[in-house]
Amino acid sequence: MRYTRQEKIIGKSGQGKLISSTVAIIGVGALGTATAELLTRAGIGKIILIDRDIIELSNLQRQLLFVTTDVGKPKATTAKNRLGEINPDVKVLAIDDDLDFENISKIKCDLILDCTDNLETRFLINEYAKSNKIPWIYSAAVGNLGRVWVITPTSPCFRCIFNETTGLATCSSAGVLNTITTSISAIQTTQAIKVLLGKDYEKNMITFNIWTNQMKVLKVKKNKNCPVCAKKYEYLTGKKKTEATKLCGSELYQIKDKKIKVKGNFVRKKKITIFKGRALVKAKSEKEARSIFSKTVGN
């Protein structure tokens, strides 16, 4: 009974394919929460959630699975608990960790959905997906503009058109409307369902400006000089990585250190939240963040 309306469109066999599918969602923020909820309601068999961040008050304007009492909690685990209330038939695995070249091999799925807020992670996803022949869907939403693009093992890849890890606007620098994040999530989810069902999906990049109601489809071509298409993996091998990272839309810095140990999933103190192998520090600069980290955790 749960999926009867959906089965009128995709059929019982289509619903069966969704139930047998595994999808990984990288980033459980504005895009990730909306996409995870839609896929959970659609009956995806297994969803893997990966996010390194904790919930802040400013997130609640657009991150749909969270409420005020969730502030300070890890995003992935909190989202998992909420999704379990929505559809207990869906198996949800939460990973409260930073996705990097050392742990990305844990992702075993049919489709990867990018709901992150930084290019470095997207370059890593792109290389992992390319090397393992896994389709993935890039999505982004900043200000009033969003993009969605399905990338397959045979299509042009993300590195074909994006070459720099800095210089693009973020939600903290440009702001963001909650209507564009939910709209882009709806497009991404629809594309995901099409890919999982083997249906014809849009192969070019979709852009949507919700303020002007302009939707465009941009043709993407392979770059003959693309290092990833030539099987040169800089991010997947760890040649390019960042140890101290400022998280989007906040005064949080992530500092990674393999020596960090905690009892339980995490420990939260005044300006620092400590996980195994990393810490999130609230500070106005990287220097201040490292100072707080040193005083609290040690060197």
What do these coordinates show?
This protein is of the alpha/beta class and 299 residues long. The chain has 2 domains: 4-218, NAD(P)-binding Rossmann-like Domain (Rossmann fold); 251-296, no CATH class. It has 8 helices and 13 strands. The protein has helices spanning 4-19, 30-42, 75-86, 119-132, 158-161, 171-174, 178-197, 286-296; strands at 22-26, 46-50, 91-95, 111-114, 136-142, 145-151, 205-209, 214-218, 244-246, 252-256, 267-268, 272-275, 278-282. The strands form 2 sheets. Strands 3-2-1-4-5-6-7-8 form an 8-stranded mixed beta sheet, with helices on both faces. The protein starts with a helix and ends with a helix.
Write the layout of secondary structure elements.
Layout lengths: L3 H16 L2 E5 L3 H13 L3 E5 L24 H12 L4 E5 L15 E4 L4 H14 L3 E7 L2 E7 L6 H4 L9 H4 L3 H20 L7 E5 L4 E5 L25 E3 L5 E5 L10 E2 L3 E4 L2 E5 L3 H11 L3
Parallel strand pairs: 1-2, 1-4, 2-3, 4-5
Antiparallel strand pairs: 5-6, 6-7, 7-8, 9-10, 10-13, 11-12, 12-13
